[in-house]
Amino acid sequence: MSSQTDTNIQVLLARRPKGAPTEADFRIVETPVPEPAAGTVLVQNLYLSLDPYMRGRMNDTKSYIPPVEIDAVMGGGTVGRVIRSDVPEMPDGTIVEGLLGWQSFATVKPKHLRIVDPALAPISTALGVLGMPGLTAYFGLFDLGKPQKGDTVVVSAASGAVGSLVGQLAKREGCRTVGVVGADEKARYIVETLGYDAAINYRTNEDLSAAVREAAPSGVNVYFDNVGGPVTDAVFDNLALRARIVLCGQISLYNASKQEMGPRNLTKILMTRSRIEGFIVFDYLERYPEGLKNLSTWLASGEITYKEDIVEGLRNAPAAFIGLLEGKNFGKRLIKISDE
Amino acid sequence: MALPNRNRKVVLARRPKGMPVEEDFRLVDDPVPEPGPGELLVRAHYLSADPFQRMRLDAGSGYGKTLDIGDVIKGRMVGEVVQSNHPDYRAGDYVEGMLGWQTYAVSDGSTERAEYAPGITKVDPDIAPISTSLGILGFPGVTAYFALLEVCDPQPGETVVVTGAGGAVGSLAGQLAKIRGCRVIGIAGRDEKLDHVTGELGFDGGINYRTTDDLLGDLRRHCPDRINVHFDNVGGDIAHAILHHLARDARIVLVGNISQNNLPEAQYRPDDTGLLMTARAMTKGFIVYDYEDRADEARKAIAGWLAEGKIHYRETIAEGIDRAPGAFISMLQGGNTGKQLIRLDDI
Predict the structure, then answer these.
(1) Given phi > 0 = left and psi -120 to 50 = alpha, else beta, which region is A174?
(2) Do A64 and B62 touch (CB under 8 A)?
(3) Does B90 touch chain A (CB under 8 A)?
(4) What would the pLDDT profile of A155-188 be if each residue is shown by its tens digit?
C-alpha cells in the first residue's frame, strides 16, 4: 500500500504513433503524489477507461477535443476516491468520476467531477453502462436513430461498450437487432446474452453485403455505426427508405496512416432519402441526468446487462489499449489501478 | 385541325456504358395515337432533359422501374391538348407531365405524379412561359425550394455552397439562399456559368472545379467561416473536398450525384465519414416526390419572387426532337446554363 500512496504512476505520450500505436509510443514515469491547492481535491484513481477515441487524440490534428501533447499524461476517464479534500460537498471517501487521465493520482476542481453513488451499481459502471459509453448509446440511438417498433437496427462493433448497449436498448423498443462483430465468440455472446436477433462476423464473412441482406430482409432502418469502412459500405447496400445512420465512431479508420478507400455510395443515401448524422456525446451534457436515470433503472430491473474486460495495473495500460484497437477486448475495457 | 400523322419517339437502343452516346438512343416514327374514352392527346412543345433520366437507363437502378430496350425514354414534357375525351381538359389547355420523349402522348388525365407516374398538371401560360413548368416552376424549382429551405434551413449569415450551381436546380437554390440572407458560393465547371451565377443571380463567389488546382484552398478563401450548408448536386471529389471545410452542425442535402452516375463502376475514394462525425454534420438524401402534396406551395412562392424580379432563370434550348439525345448528353457533361430543354416547334 505504501508505494501505491507515495508515488504517482503516470503514462505519458512519448511520441505520435504512425498507424497502429506500439508500446514505445508511451512512457511510464513515477512522480510525487500532487498536493491539492485550495479549492481542489486529491483523487486516487481506481479504474481507468480505455476508449477508441483516445487514438485520435494521439495525433497532432484538430478534432472535437485537442490532441495530447508530447510528454503529457494520456487523457482518459477514471473513477476514483477523494482522499484529501477541504470541499464540504466532496468529503474524503467520496467516489467520483472525471477525466483525470492515465495516472494513479490527480488533483482537480470539484466542478470537473461527477459524484458516483456506489449503492447504485459497481463503481466501474460509471465508466461504462452508467458513463460516457452508456450515454453515447442512449442519446445516439434515441435522439438520432429514432428507432420505431418493428424497425431493423444494425449495430457495428456490437459487443463493445457502446454497441452492446445499443442492441439491448433497440430490442427493448421492439426492434429487430443485427450486430456486426469480429469474432465468433462475440457473435455468440451478443445473440445468447444480449438478445440480438442476428450476428455477422465481418472477419470471416466473404460477402458482407449479402450477409446484411440476409439478416435484414426488409432493409436497415437504423444503422448505429461505431466502425466505418467496408461494414458501412455493406449496410449502405441494404438501407430501407428513410434510414437513419448514426455516426458514432470510425474505429476501422483510426489507425489508418493513409486513408482507407471505399465506394462510399452516397447515391444509395439519396435514393433511400436516408439521413447520416455525426454524433458526439458531449453535446448532450445537459441531458446526462435523464440518460443516467433511465439506464440505471433498466440496469437494476435486469432489462439491460453489461460485460467488463478488466486488466490489472496502470503499467499494462498501453498494451491493453493497443489490444482494444485490434478488437481484442471482450466487453468494456478498463484498467484496475488500485483496489477499491 | 390537320395533324401530321407521325409521332416521333426517342427510344432506348441499348444500355449506356458510363457516359451515354447518341448511339444508345434511336428515333422511331409511329402513327399519332388515338385517345380512347376518357383520354386526351397532348402535342409536345418542350421536352425536358434532367439528370435523373440517366439512372433510368441502367438495369437495376436505385428505385422504380427501369426502362427496357425499345421503350420510350422517360422524360417530362409540356404541351398542348389537341384532342380531349376527358371532362377536365379541353383542346388548347397546356399540361405538363412525365409523358415521355415523343412528339405526341396520350394521357388518361390522371394527376398522380409520385415516383415517375405519368400524371399531368395544368399549366397557366399567363403566369410565365410554359417552358418554366419544366424548370423553375416545375420539379427543379420544387426540388430547390424544399431541399434548401426545409432540409437545410439556412439561417441569415450562414455560408451555403451550391454544386452544380449553373444548372436548373442549383441556380435557383443559390438564389433562394441569397433571399434567406446567406453568403452563397457556387461551384460549376465552366466560367460562363460562374459569370452568370455571380452576375445576374447575385451569388457571392464562384469556383470552377475544372480549372482550379486547389479546390480546398479555394473553399477556404471563399468561405472564411467554413460551410454551414452544402446543396449537393454532384457528389464525388467536390463533395469530398467540402467535407474538409464544414462548420459545426453543417447540413448536406444530397439532391444529385451527377459526377458518379456516368461512371462504369463505383469510384473508390477516401473514407471521409469521420469528418461528418467531428462536425456533427447531417447528410440527408432528397427525392422531390416526397413533397408532391406540397408542390403548389413552392410554385406559388417561386412565382411570387419571379414576378418581383428577385429571382431569375435561364434556359438552354435545343431545337427538334432529333436533338434530344445530344442535348441530354451535353447536359450530363455540364454544357447547359440553367434548364436544358428541347423545343418542338416544327413537327
Answers:
(1) left
(2) no
(3) no
(4) 999 998 899 999 999 999 999 999 999 999 999 9
Rounded CA-CA distance A249/A267 in Å is: 22
ipTM of the complex as predicted: 0.80
Band the pLDDT of A60: cuts 50, 70, 90: confident
A64, A249, A267 ranked by CB distance to B62: nearest: A267
User: Could you tell me if B88 lies within 8 Å of chain A, comparing CB atoms?
Assistant: no
Residues of B in contact with A255 (CB under 8 A): none
List the domain boundaries for chain B.
7-135+314-343, 139-289
C-alpha separations of B185 from A1, A55, B219, B254, B309 in Å? 65, 35, 9, 17, 21
Rounded to the nearest angstrom, the minimum Cα separation between B257 and chain A is 6
Nearest CA in chain B to A237: B62
- A28 part of contact set with chain B, CB < 8 Å: no
Any chain A CB within 8 A of the CB of B91?
A: no
Domains and CATH numbers, chain A: 2-128+307-336 (3.90.180.10), 132-282 (3.40.50.720)
User: What homologous superfamily does CATH list for B139-289?
Assistant: NAD(P)-binding Rossmann-like Domain (3.40.50.720)
Low-confidence ranges of chain B (pLDDT < 70): 1-4, 60-65, 265-271, 346-347
Separation CA B69–CA B62 (nearest Å): 18
DSSP A118-173: TTTS-GGGGGTTTSHHHHHHHHIIIIII---TT-EEEEESTTSHHHHHHHHHHHHT
Residue B239 sits at the chain A interface (C-beta within 8 Å): yes
> DSSP secondary-structure letter at B108?
-
pLDDT tens-place string over residues A31-45 = 999 999 999 999 999
Span B292-307, pLDDT tens digits: 899 999 999 999 999 9
